[in-house]
Write a structure and sequence with these properties.
two-stranded antiparallel sheet; 21% helix; 124 residues; single chain; alpha+beta
Length: 124
Amino acid sequence: MQATAIPTTVRHIPTKPAPYRWTIREYRELGKTGWFHDKKTMLIHGEVYVMTLPSPPHDVTLGLTHNYLQAAFPKGWHVRNQMGLDIGTNNDPGTDLAVVQGSIRGSRSRCEMPISGLGIVCVA
């Protein structure tokens, strides 16, 4: 009889509890399932944060800032208003406004933008 080696997978088992770091893909899939129950969330360094809901003063400030930025930047720049933004890291900052190169029609579905040519605004 010949002995056959059974392959085993070596897995790292944590010795203490550790937070799970979500990827952007996982975070967005959770959002599609309704996991966040209509709460405003952000993904920062793999951790999900629940944000406060906007108030009327926030909304007015957001609208005025959007108008200002749209007028301040020349053709070839686009102001994204509370849209998803993949900046190529494990962060989805859930920005209020982001100024990016290109037009709204030229944006890819994932909005993969380089760090250069990007301005982010969060209205408190």
